Amino acid sequence: MVLCRRLWTLFIGSLVFLQFIKFLIGSLRIISYYSFITRVLSTIMYLTLFYMFIKKFTHASDSIASCAVILEKKLTVSCIVGYNSESLKNIKMRNREVIRVMERVYNFSAGPSILPLPVLEKVQKELVNYNGTGMSIMEMSHRSSYFQSIIDEAGSLLRELMNIPDEYEVLFLQGGASLQFSMIPLNLMNTYKKAGYVLTGSWSKKALQEAEKVGEVQVIASSENEKFTTIPKLDGLLGDEKLDYVHITTNNTIEGTKYVDIPHVDKVPLVADMSSNILSERYDVSKFGLIYAGAQKNLGPAGLTIAIIKRDLIGGADRSCPTMLNYETYSKNNSLYNTPPSFSIYVTKLVLEWLKEQGGVSAIEEQNRMKSSLLYNFLDESKLFTSPVDRTYRSLMNIPFTTPSEELNSEFLQKAKERGLVTLKGHRSVGGMRASIYNAMPAHGVQQLVNYMKEFELENR
């Protein structure tokens, strides 16, 4: 802008000077040359004014502002190719950056994670005017009949897809699975003041630590000595009936392991954290006293937590249990005691509808096994990439892998990002890479990842 102002001053000065020359030379024939030069300079001046107008008055417009940057020869564009053949462009403008998202990449994040594209498109369509109401779900009263139908439909769909028996409640909660680490002992540790925990990863360990603040905790089995790369054997270890419940984590998001068979517990309620594999494969809900899951991995957006709890486990919390941490509060009020995460519930309902359209849990499990096999088969044959997980207990959802060095890991991640394969960095406690391939990840995304890994291996033999 400083340069433009200087040019403006120069042009005005030049015109004034030429007017002065015209006055001196009077009617000499050279005046025709003066007219020509004046017109040229006037044209340049008008172009400059137009350029200044663009810079000054359309600074907030991406398209016009980027044109201005092109004029200054300072345009930097990087493209990431995604699965709908568009691109993400970073347009750097002096000291600020305008990011225009033009396409979707393959997002392998462990959570918040990929959502089905048809769901996002429907959210986009209904965002500002839901069902002809003239307002967004985010603006709608949770006491309205519109939202009541949304939460009812979400509950019904979940019951249908998971075949949940009538003696179970479906609760829509907040606070993530991490809050359940506290709610569970506060509500269930009420008879023996003792619970059993099976340690299979970082999240089950955190759940145990919260339970220890409420009562006594017995570590039934642990794979910590094996760095949580396997699931411990539980044969004959669940016979203690003087436990209020036994807690397991069916799928370990960070470590990439899962239970192949759910442990059989006769007279003690089995509690399961299914945050990263709920609805990914079939489970017999009747084997559990309580199932809980944060939505942001395989159900919907962050903000919602689902609890599926047997009715006879509700109402046993001590009187000192805070109201908002008592399952009975939500059970008696249809999960509407206070304002729920309404938008998250709405999107989760759409995800459940999408899952039903795919053929339900049985069909999606078949797809998940196929997708995970694509990656595992390559890892088993690879001379560069390795997976630390016990093959018997490999997760269908979260697949960790690594190369021989941190330098190669970094190079792999950077080049993957350039190809539109993003959020592959492993958890800080494990390192390497991790591909989370939840229900919404298309098979083509996994195939693209495998193709890239093959190319990377050829380049780094």
Brief overview:
Its main location: cytoplasm. With about 450 residues, the protein is an alpha/beta fold.
Provide key terms for this protein:
aminotransferase; Aspartate Aminotransferase, domain 1; transmembrane helix; 461 residues
Account of the protein in words:
- The structure is a single chain.
- About 40% of the residues lie in helices and about 15% in strands.
- The protein is of the alpha/beta class.
- The chain has four domains: about 1-55; about 60-105; about 105-115 and about 360-460, Aspartate Aminotransferase, domain 1 (Alpha-Beta Complex); about 135-350, Aspartate Aminotransferase, domain 2, CATH 3.40.640.10.
- The strands form five sheets. Strands 4-12-11-10-7-5-6 form a seven-stranded mixed β-sheet, sandwiched between helices.
- α1 (about 1-25) packs antiparallel against α2 and α6 (about 175-190) packs across α7.
- The longest helix has 27 residues, at about 30-55.
- It is globular.
- The two termini are about 50 Å apart.
- Mean pLDDT is about 85; it is low at about 25-30 and about 55-100.
- Its EC number is 2.6.1.52.
- GO terms for molecular function: O-phospho-L-serine:2-oxoglutarate aminotransferase activity; pyridoxal phosphate binding.
- Its cofactor is pyridoxal 5'-phosphate.
